[in-house]
Write a structure and sequence with these properties.
The protein is an alpha+beta fold. It contains seven helices and 14 strands.
Length: 240
C-alpha cells in the first residue's frame, strides 16, 4: 500500500501485475458524489491523471446486480471489465468498496458492498460470475477491501445483528462485537467461500468513521455528515 498525491488528489495505491488499484480519500474535500457540481470534472481529472481511455461506474442501488462494462452507465453494484486502460469503480461513504483482480485472465471487478450487498454476498457472487463466465480460478484472484465504516464504529440494531448472525456463512464467526458489525470480516468469509486464499485478501484498514482522528487521513462518512457527506471513489484499471 502506498499513499500518492496528484492534481490535488490523495489516494491509496496498490499495484499487482497489470492492475492498479486506487482508493481516493477526501483530501482537499475531493467529492465523487454523482449529484455534486464537481462530479464530471473530477471524473475527467481521473481519466487524465492516469491516461485512461474511459472511466466506468454504475448507478448504485444497494442490490446484487453485476454488470460487464460496455461503456454505458447501468444500475447495479458490481462492474467487471477485461479492457485495458479502462477504469471501473464504485462510490462509497461508509459502505465497503471491494476490488477483485484475476491476474491470469486480466479481469477485474469493482464492487459496492453496503450491509445489504454484504448480506446478499455480492462479493461471492461477483467472483462466481468471474469463474463461470470468464474461467477465473480462485488461486489467481486477489481481493482489496477499501475504506469503510469498520467494526470500531459501525453500531447496528438488534434486527440487523440477528439477520447476520443467523446466516449460515456468518453464524460461527464473531462478526458482531458489542453491537458493532464487521463488514470486512463478512466479505473476507465470502471470498474464502469462493476459494480465494486468505493471504490474497488485502485490507487498507481505514475507517470512514474515525480515520481522520486516528490516522490523519480524511474520508467521507454519510453516518457522520448525513446529506452533507461527499463520496469516495475506488477504482481499478489494467495497463496494456
Amino acid at each position: 500500500m502506498k499513499i500518492d498525491y496528484m492534481d490535488g488528489f490523495q489516494y491509496i495505491k496498490f499495484v499487482q501485475g497489470k492492475a492498479n488499484i486506487i482508493f481516493f480519500t477526501a483530501y482537499n474535500d475531493a467529492d465523487f458524489n454523482m449529484i455534486s457540481d464537481n462530479f464530471t470534472n473530477n471524473i475527467n481529472k481521473v481519466q487524465e491523471m492516469f491516461g485512461l481511455r474511459d472511466v466506468g461506474y454504475s448507478k448504485q442501488v444497494h442490490g446484487d446486480v453485476i454488470n460487464i462494462y460496455d461503456g454505458s452507465v447501468k444500475c447495479g453494484d458490481a462492474i467487471l471489465t477485461k479492457e485495458k486502460r479502462v477504469a471501473i469503480g464504485v462510490f462509497t461513504a461508509d459502505c465497503v468498496p471491494v476490488i477483485i483482480y484475476d491476474a491470469a485472465r486480466d479481469l477485474c471487478a469493482a464492487v459496492h458492498s453496503g450491509w445489504k450487498g454484504t448480506y446478499s454476498q455480492i462479493s461471492y457472487s461477483t467472483i462466481n460470475k468471474m469463474m463461470q463466465e470468464f474461467g477465473s480460478k480462485a488461486e489467481d484472484i486477489s481481493v482489496y477491501i477499501g475504506p469503510h465504516m469498520r467494526c470500531c464504529c459501525y453500531e447496528v440494531g438488534q434486527e440487523l445483528m440477528d439477520k447476520f448472525t443467523s446466516d449460515d456463512l456468518y453464524k460461527s464467526d464473531e462478526i458482531v462485537v458489542d453491537r458493532r458489525l464487521n463488514l470486512a470480516k463478512c466479505i473476507e468469509l465470502q471470498c474464502i467461500k469462493s476459494g480465494v486464499s486468505k493471504d490474497k485478501i488485502y485490507d487498507v484498514n481505514l475507517c470512514t468513521g474515525c480515520s481522520e482522528r486516528t490516522s490523519g487521513i480524511k474520508l467521507h462518512s454519510f453516518r457522520t455528515r448525513k446529506d452533507q457527506s461527499g463520496r469516495l471513489f475506488s477504482l481499478v484499471y489494467m495497463e496494456e
